[in-house]
């Protein structure tokens, strides 16, 4: 069985919880990613911020991205999977919560991120179809 660690993109970088959204956008551009995990001073995962979050929840709401922090947009309990989770568990977690990216943890540390692109490159057509059907179907 394929494990999360075999599908994930390793070497993921966090945006500190107190960093501003303009810096988050710059990091996304530099890293060529659409999402960043938000980590606290304790190195714990506090959430994920996406490029869409910055646009919709900050810019379109008339807020200043140089004053709003990543932590200001961190909401709820972050979803994640263990590095040794079976890929079916990864698909189920992402599908259940209709999320397109998920952090991968090992020993309470962030070790990678799995995105739709990662799944598309590593999974069978059947697994991809299952994921797409569940994530993109409105409940």
TrEMBL record:
Residues 8-66, 73-130 form the CBS domain. Keywords: CBS domain. Gene3D superfamilies: CBS-domain (3.10.580.10). PROSITE patterns: CBS. It comes from the Bacteria. SMART domains: CBS. The keyword Lipoprotein does not apply. This is CBS domain-containing protein. It comes from Thermomonospora cellulosilytica. The lineage of its organism: Bacteria, Bacillati, Actinomycetota, Actinomycetes, Streptosporangiales.
